[in-house]
Batch of 2 targets.
Target 1
Amino acid sequence: MGAKILKATQEAIAAAASLIRGGEVVAFPTETVYGLGADCFNPRAVAKIFEVKERPHFDPLIVHIAQKEGWRELASSGDRRVEALTERFWPGPLTLVLPKREVVPDIVTSGLPTVAVRMPSHPVALALIKEAKTPIAAPSANLFGRLSPTSAEEVAEQLKERIPLILDGGRCPVGVESTIISLLEDPPRLLRPGGVPVEEIEMTIGEGVKKESSSSTAPQSPGQLPSHYAPRTPLRLLEERCEAPQGVRAGLLAFTPPEGDLGYAAVEVLSERGDLVEAAYRLFSALRRLDRSGVEVIYAERVPEVGLGRAIMDRLRKAANKFEGDWG
Ligand code: TXA
Ligand code: MG
């Protein structure tokens, strides 16, 4: 097929919206990562998302809306925390899991009685949803289990031959996926750390959020699968900064700039000044460059696990997990 990559002008957004109304899937920018969207009320269109991504059907999708109150069409909840959270964080990188209404097709939620909803803040995403006149079901626009794209070029690398259109809105300003909170439990549970720090969520609702993953064997949020978000190159988490190992071409994913040459074949620095927001923004593209640099192993430094640092460490652990057993 060969996707058109169009700068996200009004005209291009209108073209994307009409593809969505016609049951097609298109890639579009959000403030977190690029999404692969379809009309959430059209099960055939939603099925194409799974096909394009080669995504297992048990992995449910987030539905994107363009108005704060839009969740009421998709979910029913009398929980006062919904109001507090949407008031404070929408539009923005927070996804709420709520009891679903009948109108939401099972393919969107993988048969779960719940639906994940978020109102993105990216102006292109909002314009697209409004123009399409339907909520848009969208996962990140990557092949299943691979790094989420934060630019139109990165979407094209993985999906160009599989979709008709990629809306180019430049680089995503947040750079990691949304924070997912389930309001079906009391207290609420963090299903995935992301762009909104969980500490801020706790302040807003005035109570703690469960952070350990749930004990049930089926993951509630398959983003919790241990091998998500992985580059191709094996990744190891470093306990602390150290020199490159002998006898292997190694890359370093550094949080802050290393002093002097540590002997790595390639080095990516997440933030010159140790800023976690900037580090999150750069994480996926830095991993991608290391992946392409021809190193045999990537050593990743830890970052402080506060604020956006939780999301960064979550993704690094998942990337490391994929290759457990392959290395040392
Ligand atoms: O920032 C984001 O959230 C991006 C942009 C495009 O909005 N989307 C994204 O979607 O990361 P995806 O599909 O790659 O990750 C969504 C996660 C999955 O791990 C999925 O299992 C979980 O949300 N999820 C969706 N619906 C759920 C539900 N009803 N209950 C629990 N988890 C759910
Ligand atoms: Mg994803």
Target 2
Amino acid sequence: MLKLSYKDILHTKQFSKEDLKLIFSTAKEMEKIISWEKKETPLKDKIMASMFYEPSTRTRLSFESAMHRLWWNVITVSDSNATSLSKWESLEDNAKIISIYADIIVMRHPEVHSVQKTAITIDKSVINAWDWANQHPTQALLDVYTIFKEKKTLNWLNISIVWDLKYWRTAHSLVFLMWLFKNVSFNFISPKELKMPEKVIIFLKEKNISFIEWDNYKKWIKDSDVVYVTRLQKERFTDLSEYEKLKNNFILTLDILKEAKKDVTIMHPLPRVNEVDHKVDNLSNAAFFRQASNWVPIRMALLYLLLKD
Ligand code: CP
């Protein structure tokens, strides 16, 4: 197998189409290990340090599960108060020490660019498991892998991204990856308070990618091949009255989906609160739990491709 040409995974914009082909074909091989179709693991004796300074269920546990599926080992930081950061050690020193004990670091941190800064200071590979409202590149990879598996193509797709477009980094990361494909267009559906950030809009204009911004489902849902719903993130609001004002808008229901294409793929990075009605779960095109099952093979592929000699 080939190798990725970089040390770290920090930002979606670093991936080329060739990288995606390599990652997806490796993930396919990893699915064989998960299903026991393939019994030998590709490398021996690797240790991943999982440094999570913000809560996570899926990202952390799927990375750790990926390591166990490869018969590798994990060391974990899940609470910064339980490390010497609580004794005023700098994040830089803390990461340098942890990197001595591990072969690769997966890191989530509540400061924008903190993961990039860490990657510069240490020799081992670092994977960004998200740095506040900035980037979540491995989520974008598995989202695109899911779209490919569901639609059998990544070209000529109209993608609606819905709800908290301001803070959901997976929404930003998805745009920065899907633009690589032919004739992809976007509908950004959100209240004006939570519109897609200017950096994403400028990027799309520079690349001449078609998009619209709209404040309800009605007009654009019928054109969508994929509807990607996000959660309103209460934890990002400094003024909770703003959250209360917005929290019941944009709930995706069976009624709204009557207007959509029969084969529209419904996705969600999860966790969900109320933004996708539970009755939607029973539709065959509700793909969010299948999406979650793609987390482990994609992360096995990334760990393998970064750690192989
Ligand atoms: N989608 C996602 O990153 O989930 P967690 O916050 O549970 O890791």
